[in-house]
Specification:
- Helices cover about 60% and strands about 5% of the residues.
- The protein has about 1000 residues and is mainly alpha-helical.
Length: about 1000
């Protein structure tokens, strides 16, 4: 009894689910002798059974097999298999432990165990030669393998039974080698091709039997073309076998007779492999992929096939032809068929909406999966086999027109070719390759159990346990680990499928002609000239530089450029855009992230083409900050950063640097990023019209904050002090203070300090001057980061006054000598960097000056009107039409800002809402307080916004970051067109922009004259 319990425990440990029954089976007389003999020969039979997918299933099948083999010719070979611990026993038990169907087949024909024995000199069936399999199948039906059109010696039911038995013997050997190979994923392509070759051999034998049964069969040359997985040599154990038939008359025969005989041969062939007989049918033979499907004739001549595909075939039919391969019958005719249809396959993408229809077809397939099966469908479901196969096929069809190296009909070979050609990222291709093998191996294990066509993952726990033990890959050991791993695989496959299969680039590439895609010089030159390039020869030179060679960058750019050339042409300066793209690619063209974004991003390539062909400013800035190209992939990256976030980033960047100037450059770097974010957003038309002004201002703020922090530390150390003798403050003025900066705006500031109570005032003043001087020089010093001109001319006494003053000195000056224009300037004063308490005190000091109680005296109102008139007449540049000057001209920035500021000075003391530094905010407050009619505030706001945007667009388009030309609406056609496009006008909208500005400025001028001059 104790021995029985011990044995039961051992069997449970080995994986037997019902150990008590297993003990009884092992002690059955039919097996007992073999078990006893096997005990001392390496691993015991029990241990060997414990290694298979389902030990209970294997033991039951083994007992039945032993009983069937007893006293027969199979008894001796079966005994050898069971006793000897080697590969033959492993193959037998692996088959019995997974496949009920193959186990039943062995029980029915025990002599087949001979197939699993080692035979000296034989190789695995997974490494066979294709011709060997065909020859074996033909010999099985008594046909001559060397004959051009073999005819079986066994006809009728005898021939059918012989070919079916031969096929199943081959399938048994394939399954045995498959289930015992060290790495099932690595062996999968060999397994799939071995099954496909066994199918092709069975078709050849079935055709030989048909020739024996069909009268006058010699009148027709019949070729059987494998489609789908049959053509791709990647068949499942159980699958529909898709074929198409081609027929031609034999020499001296008539076409009508050949068609009749060919139809009879094809019908007989299908019957020989699929009809009910003494031996079970092999698999369904499906000819529905033929022209016209079920409604079309079963066989056609080659010419008829070609005519159909040239005139009437739909896109999906060409996708099916991608895998077409001769598998049986007349070899020469089969090759002629493939040669004739192959050129048509890769021109199918030029049909209207080919890619979109392929994508829609994939969505329809998913939509028709029953909800209860969606998570179990290995083939059609999300993250399943079709996701990989459709992805590979679509890329092949789109890019295979000009690249013959990616036309394999086998999914994994095609995927490898696409990766080699850089159509798919190598890492992504490796992941898809691995996951496709995993899913196919799992599919094979599911189908092997009962040899039934199924793509559904079972739900029963015992089935999942058997599958998990049968997989032996990726750490899968049982039901739970299989379920978890499958879920991960499908999630990753789905992600890559959606990323690649739905690339926006694919339908655009498909719409191009073959000559456009190929970038052939003459065709490319004509296309470039036609779509708007001014220098096609120069553009061809850039294209050649980008695409020549075998580098990864050249491969990807050969894919992209045919489409991107069109995108550049959508911009106002396509030649400049292509040149900028070449320069950018020379800087970062070899970086993996850039190339991956170009190929795989949904929006980045098009956005990049848009900004490069529109804005020289952005093109130059991207050349200096190429990592910013990644922002074009994700719109969120272009969103403004909060002041708190920028301050924290500045502090972190400065903490990592020891050199003072490097610390200043950290702030200037953040400013450069902010300028570029603003510029890209402007060119792409993102956000509110005031978005860029806010971004540019915040970027200047952070640069000033960083420079002040460093200047205080350096000036203090230079003075030999342990701590600063004063508090310090930088006050923003002008457009900086109003948060209204443009791309070429200076930073107008005031420098303020406040000596600490115990500080030496003379020393404190010297240190404060050093601080102010260092802030200015560090931001204006030439370096890798853009210069920020710091202008302190709005300080008391202007350029003649000290660069910085104490708070008390400011108070004394303003109390005694403040001028009307200084009150006006203080309307935009905004503390931007330095001590918060000092900032509050400074604002409290200036508020009575800029928002005087009782309003501005009439004498000062008249003085401001006089100054405004003088500025307008004296500062207008010579030779410039005033109507085109968006700053000083009629209705320009100056008109709006002076008008608003005068009204703020007059009413700010009584209306707190007017106490804002921004022009548009003040206009809103004037309207809300009913100080200015809504119609007039709208006119002024529209003119101010348009003028500001024109100035920015001139800088963005020209790339010029200095000079006063940004204030003048261009006359030159090209420059004006660029400005118009940046401002959202359609191509050719430069005249509309001129009219829009002149009209808006004229109306704003009328409102300003009434409000400012009364």
């Amino acid at each position: 009894m104790t021995r029985q319990v011990s044995r039961t425990t051992t069997l449970r440990r080995l994986g037997f689910a019902d150990a008590e029954i297993a003990v009884g089976r092992l002690e059955d007389p039919a097996l007992a002798t073999h078990v006893a003999r096997a005990t001392g020969a390496g691993a015991s039979l029990e241990e060997a059974l414990g290694r298979v997918a389902d030990p209970d299933l294997a033991l039951l099948a083994l007992l039945r097999l032993a009983e069937a083999a007893a006293q027969g010719p199979a008894e001796e070979p079966l005994g050898r298999l069971l006793v000897e611990d080697g590969e033959p026993r492993r193959r037998l038990l692996a088959v019995l432990g997974l496949s009920t169907a193959l186990g039943n087949a062995l029980v029915a024909r025990p002599e087949a165990v001979e197939l699993l024995l080692d035979h000296p000199g034989e190789r695995s069936v997974l490494t066979h030669r294709d011709g060997e399999v065909r020859a074996d199948a033909l010999r099985a039906v008594g046909a001559d393998p060397d004959h051009v059109a073999p005819v079986a010696g066994l006809g009728g039911e005898d021939g059918v039974a012989a070919l079916r038995r031969a096929y199943r013997r081959r399938l048994l050997q394939i399954a045995a080698d498959d289930l015992t190979c060290p790495d099932p994923l690595e062996a999968f392509p060999q397994v799939a091709s071995a099954i496909a070759d066994a199918v092709a051999a069975a078709l050849e034998a079935a055709l030989a039997v048909a020739r024996a049964d069909v009268p006058r069969s010699e009148q027709a040359r019949l070729a059987v073309i494998g489609m789908g997985k049959t053509g791709g040599r990647e068949l499942n154990y159980i699958s529909d076998v898709d074929v198409v038939y081609v027929v031609e008359p034999a020499e001296g025969a008539q076409e009508a007779e050949a068609l009749r005989v060919g139809t009879s041969l094809a019908t007989a062939l299908a019957r020989n492999v699929s009809a009910v007989g003494t031996e079970p049918a092999l698999w369904p033979l499906d000819a529905n992929l033929r022209p016209e499907g079920k409604d079309g004739p079963l066989v056609r001549t080659l010419a008829s096939h070609v005519t159909y595909y040239e005139r009437w075939a739909k896109g999906w039919e060409f996708q099916a032809l991608l895998k077409a391969r001769p598998v049986a019958g007349d070899v020469e005719l089969g090759r002629a068929y493939c040669d004739a249809v192959a050129p048509l396959v890769f021109h199918a993408v030029e049909k209207e909406r080919f890619v979109e229809d392929s994508q829609a077809m994939r969505r329809r397939v998913e939509a028709h999966i029953p909800a209860a099966e969606a998570d179990r469908q290995l083939k059609l479901g999300a993250g399943g086999l079709r996701d990989v196969e459709f992805t590979v096929q679509l890329l092949q069809l789109v890019h295979g027109r000009t690249d013959p190296s990616i036309r394999s009909g086998t999914t994994l070979d095609g995927l490898a070719q696409l990766a080699a050609g850089e159509y798919v990222a190598r890492d992504d291709a490796e992941l898809l390759d691995h996951h496709y093998r995993f899913l196919r191996v799992l599919e094979h294990r599911i189908q092997l159990h009962r040899l039934r066509r199924s793509h559904l993952v079972p739900t029963a726990q015992e089935d999942l346990r058997r599958l998990g033990r049968a997989m032996r890959v990726d750490g899968v050991q049982g039901a739970d680990s299989l379920t978890a791993r499958l879920r991960q695989v499908r999630r990753e496959v789905r992600h890559l499928h959606e990323e690649i299969f739905y690339r926006p680039l694919l339908p655009l590439t498909a719409r191009l002609s073959t000559s456009d895609v190929s970038l052939a010089p003459e065709a490319a030159r004509a296309r470039l000239a036609a779509i708007g390039y001014h220098d096609p020869a120069g553009a061809l030179h850039h294209i050649a530089a980008l695409t020549e060679g075998i580098s990864r960058a050249a491969s990807i750019q050969r894919q992209l450029l045919p489409v991107m050339l069109g995108w550049f042409a959508e911009g106002p300066a396509p030649d400049a855009g292509l040149l900028a793209f070449r320069k950018l690619s020379e800087v970062i063209g070899g970086t993996p992230w850039y190339l991956k974004l170009l190929r795989d991003s949904g929006e980045m390539p098009r956005r990049l083409a848009q900004v490069l062909s529109t804005s020289r400013y952005v093109a130059d800035a991207l050349g200096r900050l190429p990592e910013a190209v990644a922002w074009l992939d994700e719109v969120g990256e272009l969103s403004p950063r909060t002041p708190e976030g920028l301050a924290a980033e500045l502090k972190a960047l400065q903490a990592r640097r020891s050199d003072p100037f490097e610390k200043v450059l950290a702030g200037r770097y953040l400013r450069r990023r902010g300028l570029l974010r603003a510029a890209i957003g402007d060119v792409l038309g993102m956000g509110e019209p005031t978005r860029s002004a806010a971004l540019i201002t915040e970027a200047a703020d952070v640069a000033l904050q960083g420079a002040l922090r460093v200047a205080v530390a350096e000036a203090t150390a230079q003075a030999g002090l342990d701590s600063p003798p004063s508090r310090y403050l930088v006050v923003a003025m002008g457009r900086l203070g109003g948060r209204e900066m443009g791309y070429v705006s200076d930073a107008d500031v005031l420098f303020v300090h406040d000596p600490l109570p115990d500080a030496d005032e003379e020393l404190a003043t010297r240190v404060a001057l050093e601080v102010a001087s260092r802030v200015r020089s560090s931001l204006q010093q030439a370096a890798t980061e853009p210069v920020l001109e710091v202008d302190a001319d709005l300080r008391p006494e202007g350029r003649n006054g000290p660069l910085t003053r104490s708070l008390a000195s400011y108070a004394e000056y303003y109390e005694r000598w403040v001028e009307p224009w200084e009150r006006q300037a203080l309307l935009r004063a905004r503390p931007v960097a330095g001590d918060a308490e000092l900032a509050a005190r400074f604002e409290a000091m200036i508020d009575p000056l800029r928002y005087p109680e009782g309003g501005l005296p009439d004498t000062q109102v008249r003085e401001l009107r006089r100054i405004k008139a003088r500025v307008e007449s004296e500062r207008m540049p010579r030779g410039v039409a005033p109507s085109r000057h968006v700053k000083l001209g009629p209705g320009g920035l100056s008109d709006v800002e002076w008008t608003v500021q005068l009204l703020q000075l007059r009413h700010g003391g009584a209306v707190p809402e007017l106490r804002t530094t921004g022009t548009l905010g003040a206009l809103d407050a004037l309207r809300a307080a009913e100080l200015v009619p809504a119609e007039q505030t709208a006119l002024l706001a529209e003119a101010w916004l348009l003028a500001s945007r024109i100035r920015d667009a001139i800088v963005l388009g020209s790339g010029r970051t200095s000079g006063r030309r940004a204030d003048v609406l261009p006359h030159e056609v090209g420059e004006l067109e660029v400005v118009a496009r940046i401002l959202g006008h359609e191509p050719g909208g430069r005249l509309d922009l001129e009219e829009r500005w002149l009209r808006t400025a004229r109306r704003a001028r009328a409102a300003a004259e009434e409000l400012f001059y009364g």
